[in-house]
Amino acid sequence: MNQVGTEEKIKEAAKQVFLERGFDGTKMRDIAEVAGINTALTNYYFRSKENLFWIVFDEMLRQSMDQMNQVLNGDQSIREKIRQLIQQQYDFHSKNQMLALFIMNEIRRDPERFAQRTSLLEMFTHSVFFKQLEEGIAQKQIRPISADHLLGLMFAHSQQLYAGKALHLVLFKTDEAGFEAYAKAQVEIAIDMILCYLFITN
């Protein structure tokens, strides 16, 4: 059996099962069953459920984090960066809609490990974006705001939007197309609200 092919098959199965059931609700035998291999082979390649979990989780977030880092350290104005970062989060959750609830559950389960693996705050505070923010505040062009408040404003809304999707579909009696139209409108509303709050001058 090809090692690379087997490892990828296990990781794809693990992604599916972890997203559906979360870490606590997943067993290695569940992953092995979806992958179509025996549990012993799954353990042989990845040693433990926790090790496999973080490998899969890191791969799921790496692309989003890389894209975010490019914007944070790009040449754009801070206003344009805020727009792009919020849009990126909506696009990411739109393409990975089960991930919002999964992330919320795993943050609650192991917040310290989650913070260490993402390094979001460190990436944010060591970026060109953060320097632009500090300069804007010093020049009284941007309302004074801490990193935790700004990160919450930019990123929490898109995650909550998709975490609450099932309820929205029922409450407002809409379908997938209707929800996506609503989500796109929410992007623009969120961007406008945050920019209007942050920028003191136009």
UniProtKB/TrEMBL annotation:
UniProt KW keywords: DNA-binding
PROSITE patterns on file: HTH_TETR_2 (PS50977)
Family annotation (InterPro entries): Homeodomain-like_sf, HTH-type_TetR-like_transc_reg, HTH_TetR, Tet_transcr_reg_TetR-rel_C_sf
Residues annotated to bind DNA: 27-46
Origin: domain of life: Bacteria
Membrane spanning residue stretches: none
HTH tetR-type domain ranges (all copies): 4-64
Signal peptide positions on this chain: none
Pfam families to which the protein is assigned, alphabetical: TetR_N
Gene3D superfamilies assigned: Tetracycline Repressor, domain 2
Official protein name in the record: TetR/AcrR family transcriptional regulator
